[in-house]
Design a protein that fits this description.
alpha/beta, Alkaline Phosphatase, subunit A, 16 strands
Length: 484
């Protein structure tokens, strides 16, 4: 889909009226115009997957540059472990149980009114969207001034022989693959939008599975050199995670399976994310837009990617799936080479972008502006963050991994289990601060973790008497946030 709102407005009376009244559609840009906004979002990138953060497997020179020239949030978390609830939270500024999607099955997507894109358009911004949607209803896309929507390449389609750790080299020419096509369209939008303030969302599919990249990139990574995280068995956290690992066949993955998957994952980040971010930053500089543009980079959720001996995602509220990168880049507007340990969450993106661009923050949003932390006016505080999800329990049939030749003609086993697990039959919710995390599930026992500033849950201590007081305090806070 590649359309513009200007094309749409010529065809309707409503559009004609809107075109006449919207400052975003007028040619001249006043000298005191607000700064542009470029919001770059990738899909399924862990928060630690950057070479600048010391990750042994990652190669991210452009993201590292962003961090050196801007502000990095080390403790940024999303409000859902999969695409739809997380993306809806980011653009609505509301928690999943407020916008109605606890899983990827949650519908409808967002309407136009009251959400981030409409907010910027009302302020006179030209609005553009490139890449993956999974956020707004298709009928609402026409409200954008420019839209170029696509998801995954057709060659990534699932089939019955794909293992849960699927990876392969890309066999299309790089210039035809969607990461480059999305960047081409984003660059074109930037070059044609100099005369008016703009809000551009660039949404990349990568590094979402299947983990794929061109051989020029995958050949730079050697499986034997990939370093796995410290192994914490799924059973140390919950029976639910242990059952899911078994149902996905991931408890049968060898070390070679894992390291080969890691090789493709980090190659995909370098190609499908980091290289593309570099193109956008370079375009902003080449076109003289960098000194009047705020760039935000983040991801909609993470990936197990070796943690607990697993890969991919699931309906779990663990840090490997919730911790994401967040980098702010605005030359001359914010400090350089700064990091903050302040806790941030997806619902903070909307109020922060509003505040950073000089606008008023909608008063009914539950998140907060991170501007004081970006400018170094505040240090990390005692804030807590909340996350929620829906899930279904696995039955005996799903835990039986025996496949017949007939089964492989249908959906692959890992897709069946994943989709079943995404059914929002039960609910889970989490509260997290710098030191502690509590997870409550409707059909499973509570989980309590002592985080101590870390991002890996190592042992569920919910039933240990010496931590009863901490558990009660967190339970009360969770109950006040969302009553079941």
């Amino acid at each position: 889909m590649n359309t513009t709102r200007r094309t749409f407005v010529k065809k309707t009376t409503f559009g004609a009226s809107l075109a006449a009244s919207s400052p975003a559609l007028q040619a001249a840009r006043p000298a005191d115009a607000p700064p542009n906004v470029v919001f770059i979002f990738c899909d399924q990138m862990r928060g630690d997957a950057m070479s600048g953060l010391g990750h042994p497997n990652a190669r991210t020179p452009n993201l590292d540059r962003m961090a050196r020239e801007g502000v990095l949030f080390e403790n940024s978390f999303v409000n859902g472990p999969v695409c739809v609830p997380s993306r809806k939270s980011v653009f609505s500024g509301r928690y999943p149980h407020e916008h109605g999607s606890l899983t990827n099955q949650g519908r409808p997507f967002l309407s136009w009114s009251g959400n981030m894109c409409e907010y910027f358009q009302r302020r006179g911004y030209k609005t553009g969207w490139v890449g993956k949607n999974h956020t707004y209803e298709r009928s609402e896309i026409k409200n954008l001034d420019y839209a170029s929507i696509r998801d995954r390449e057709p060659f990534r389609a699932y089939n019955g022989t794909v293992p849960p750790h699927w990876h392969a080299d890309v066999y299309w020419p790089e210039e035809d693959c969607y990461p480059q096509v999305n960047s081409d369209h984003a660059v074109d939008f930037l070059r044609k939008s100099k005369d008016e303030p703009f809000f551009l969302h660039v949404s990349y599919f990568d590094p979402h599975p299947p983990y794929m990249a061109p051989a020029d990139f995958t050949s730079r990574y050697i499986s034997a050199n990939m370093q796995l995280p410290e192994y914490v068995p799924p059973g140390a956290l919950s029976k639910r995670l242990e059952e899911f690992s078994h149902a996905m066949g991931q408890d049968r993955m060898t070390r070679a399976d894992l390291t080969e998957t890691l090789r493709y994952y980090y190659a995909q980040i370098e190609w499908g994310v980091d290289k593309q971010v570099g193109r956008i930053l370079n375009t902003l500089e080449q076109e003289g837009l960098a000194d009047n543009t705020i760039v935000l980079f983040s991801s909609d959720h993470g990936d197990f990617m070796g943690t607990h001996g697993m890969v991919r995602k699931g309906m779990f509220l663990y840090d490997s799936l919730l911790h994401v990168p967040m980098i702010w880049w605005a030359p001359g507007r914010i400090p350089k080479n700064q990091r903050t340990t302040a806790l941030a969450q997806g619902i903070d993106f909307f109020p922060t972008l509003a505040d950073m661009s000089g606008g008023s923050i909608p008063s009914d949003l539950p998140g907060r502006s991170l501007k004081p932390f970006i400018h170094g006016e505040r240090d990390a505080d005692d804030r807590v963050i909340y996350t929620s999800a829906g899930f279904d329990d696995l039955d005996d049939e799903q835990l039986n991994l025996t496949l017949t030749p007939e089964d492989t003609k249908a959906d692959p086993r890992h897709t069946q289990v994943l989709e079943k697990h995404f059914d929002p039959k039960f609910r889970s919710k989490m509260i997290r601060n710098q030191g502690w995390k509590l997870i409550l599930n409707e059909s499973h026992p509570a989980e309590l973790y002592k985080m101590d500033g870390g991002r890996v849950e190592k042992q569920n201590i919910a039933d240990q008497p010496q931590f009863a007081s901490t558990r009660r305090t967190l339970e009360n806070q969770l109950a006040a946030w969302w009553k079941w």
